[in-house]
Design brief:
By secondary structure, this protein is α/β, with parallel strands linked by helices. Helix content is 59%, strand content 12%.
Length: 252
């Protein structure tokens, strides 16, 4: 490479580094050689390297969304065995996975015994949303109420509620496995009220709606929470068999 060309290359390399165009910096020389061989136009060459930069940036952004969401594990909708839960409305689930429900702040509620796939479905829809660059957070009900109680003690409750109200999709898993105190039930109600008609919420629970008074230790609070969750919602009652028992039988 001639001295002048080397100087230009070093300058370009530095400029791309300053602009954080790391993918372009990585590929522009090899792509230029390829463009010369195939007689690609300047515009097509530029388009090609910029497209690669955008793809890399989007992949990184999706990964950050996934990390922020804090999914406990990766569960894809494509992996869910609908044949094992034949009464579940597969068509509607797949329609919801297209994420149109987020545009109207509708909720999804999965009710069923342990092991029927509630968490799998909730996570898989959450992953679809994160991949579409939506703001997603996953919590167990216990973890969420602990954080709400802690933020109240520290005087940060309003800030916490504001943060949760701006999330496109909030997933609350395992509601009903532990009964909530009067305090945490009140905080849970405040959070649901703050999100009402602003963002979508997915809730999974092992308790039917008529037993939610036991979860919240207050029939009035439970009724108010259900009123807001069910107003714009897709409730699913999953009466099928446990996937965990299926796996045990298959391994036996």
């Amino acid at each position: 490479m001639e001295p002048n060309q080397l100087n230009q290359s070093n300058k370009l390399d530095q400029y791309l580094k300053t602009l954080s165009l790391h993918k372009v910096r990585e590929i522009y020389l090899s792509e230029a050689e390829s463009a010369a061989r195939t007689k690609l136009s300047y515009q097509d060459y530029l388009l090609r390297i910029v497209e690669q930069q955008i793809i890399t940036k989007m992949d990184g952004s999706v990964n950050r969304k996934m990390q922020i969401a804090s999914f406990p594990q990766i569960k894809r909708l494509e992996e869910f065995d609908f044949s094992y839960q034949p009464k579940l409305n597969e068509k509607l689930i797949r329609e919801l996975a297209a994420l149109d429900f987020l545009n109207t702040a509708k909720n999804i509620i999965f009710i069923g015994a342990p092991g029927v796939g509630k968490t799998h479905l909730a996570i898989s829809i959450g992953i679809k949303a994160a991949s579409a660059m939506k703001r997603v957070l996953f919590y167990t009900a216990e973890k969420l109420t602990e954080e709400l109680a802690s933020s109240e003690v520290s005087g940060q409750l309003n800030k916490k509620l504001d943060t949760l109200s701006r999330v496109d999709l909030l997933i609350i898993d395992e509601l009903g496995y532990l009964s909530l105190s009067k305090q945490t039930s009140r905080l849970f109600f405040q959070m649901i009220s703050k999100r009402y008609e602003k963002g979508s919420t997915i809730v999974t629970s092992n308790k039917p709606f008529e037993e939610w008074g036991e979860i919240f230790n207050d029939d009035t609070v439970a009724s108010a929470i259900l009123d807001r969750l069910l107003h714009h919602s897709y409730p699913f009652l999953i009466n099928g068999k446990s996937f965990r028992l299926k796996n045990i039988n298959n391994n036996a």
